[in-house]
Amino acid sequence: MAGYPRRAPGSAFRAVGDEGGFVVLPARSEVKVLNPAGALIFSLLDGVHSPEQIRDAVAQEFDVSADQAMRDVEVFLRDLELHGMLADEATSGVAS
Amino acid sequence: MTDPYRRLLNYAFAQAIPLNCQIEITYRCNHLCSFCYNSPTGQREMSTPQIFEALSKIQEFGVLYVTLTGGEAMCHRDFFAIAAEVRRLNMALRVYTNGYLLADKKTVARLRALDPLEVEVSIHGSRPETHDALTRIQGAFVKTVQAIGNLVEAGIKVNLKCPITQLNQNELFEIRDLGERFGLRVNFDAVITPKDDGDQGPLALRANEEFIRKYWVEWYSELHRGKLPPRQNHCASEGGANCGTGRSGFTVDPYGNILPCVAFRRKIANILEIESLDSIWRTSPVLQEVRDLSVEARTQLDKHPNGPYFTFCLGVAENQTGNPLAVYPQAEINAQAVRRHYELLQIKDPGVRAKSA
């Protein structure tokens, strides 16, 4: 997985306790709901955290293996991309 | 089974995690609506840098939706800078407006560039004579209708809102049809409120009782294309409270005062004088009292014969009667009529549903 993933520009995100989170995509007039794992991952899509760092956070929080966490992160990121919730690679930041 | 969106919303409501903030960025307005509830005090309004400071605190607090309102929000000379700041802070932007300044396509294009989530436009009649009489601005109707067209054409989500008054009560179907010409639904509001300072003047314009009863019993579903009348406040959720005041959101007035909601205007604090919203949200005695009152209101309404049919506003109750828990006449009339609507359709008392849930 290349780069440091970042949320779609202009998207608004709010974690709701430990229960999940809302993502608003104003350009599409859509509101998405994330489960707790999704909310954790989404909160880390800041162009600073690498997929490996996100994997480690998921593995620690949800007590799953690193391999399982990586697979979950990859699937989730692909879903986000499909739903327009991820910045394009070209606009995605790379941590310095 | 509750859908995930509703479930998460219910959780946020129960835990008083606010998702919304309305900011009245100015009391200035280019209309002179005779039923307007605003009551400017003559204090100095927040400067633009102060509004930016407020927005920063609101963003740090985790608010998802910011609504810019007024007065007429677009009359603020820095409206676009403020709206852009909302978006720069990655909060979703809503705008409440009379639409007058959006008759200009270039202005609409500037707004479109900010990706607003939605724009709510007030429409007061189906004809210029009615709309202009209520707004007391000649030519307002033409501009508002032009604005609606411009917004729709630009691909911006638009909500139309119409407070029902004596002057427009006989043209609600035509107002609905006007909205539908643009592919839009109109949200009619049967409650006209006193001014924020308690002046009851606007109530003289409210639709008469006979009309309101017919509106709920006979016309509501037809007017709303088969929709049933609401049986609870639009901002209510599961969890025992009557509404979302001081819970699902809050309001900031042009002076920076934080209020539990746009209708219940008890000052919590001034946003420019606090370190953070976190520092007051769980500890403010005003907020705690308001939340308790909202639960108490629901408990009392549940004992009322028409309880399951009430849409009840604590702010209106306090403003009209001095007691936030007192059932004010408009709420009572509405509840009776909504109950009648459901009885005619032989729909079971929702109280039964609530108890079994």
Q: What's the overall average pLDDT of chain A, rounded?
A: 89
- Cα distance spanning the termini of chain A: 17 Å
What is the topology, as strand order, of the major beta sheet of chain B? 6-5-4-3-2-1-7-8-9
The biggest chain-chain interface is: A-B, 19 and 22 residues
**Number of continuous helical runs of chain A:** 3
Radius of gyration of chain A: 13 Å
Helix content of chain B: 40-55%
Number of strands of chain B: 9
Biggest sheet of chain B, in brief? 9 strands, mixed
Biggest sheet strand order of chain A reads: 1-2-3
Low-confidence runs of at least 5 consecutive residues of chain A: none
Give the structural class of chain B. alpha/beta
Question: What's this model, at a glance?
Answer:
Chain A has 96 residues and is α+β, with helices and mostly antiparallel strands. Chain A has helices at residues 36-43, 51-62, 66-82; strands spanning 12-15, 21-25, 30-34.
Structural features, described:
The complex is a heterodimer of chains A (96) and B (357). Chain A is of the alpha+beta class. Chain A is built from three helices and three strands. Chain A has a three-stranded antiparallel sheet with strand order 1-2-3. Chain A is globular, with a radius of gyration of 13 Å. Chain A starts with 11 loop residues before the first strand and ends in a 14-residue tail after the last helix. In chain B, a hairpin with a 4-residue loop joins strand 7 (249-252) and strand 8 (257-259). Chain B is built from 13 helices and nine strands. Chain B has helices at 4-14, 48-60, 79-88, 105-112, 128-135, 140-153, 172-181, 209-223, 278-281, 285-303, 314-321, 329-344, 350-356, and strands spanning 20-24, 65-69, 92-97, 118-122, 158-163, 186-189, 249-252, 257-259, 269-270. By secondary structure, chain B is of the alpha/beta class. The longest helix of chain B is centred in the last third of the chain and has 19 residues, at 285-303. In chain B, 40% of the residues lie in helices and 11% in strands. The chains are: A alpha+beta (96), B alpha/beta (357).
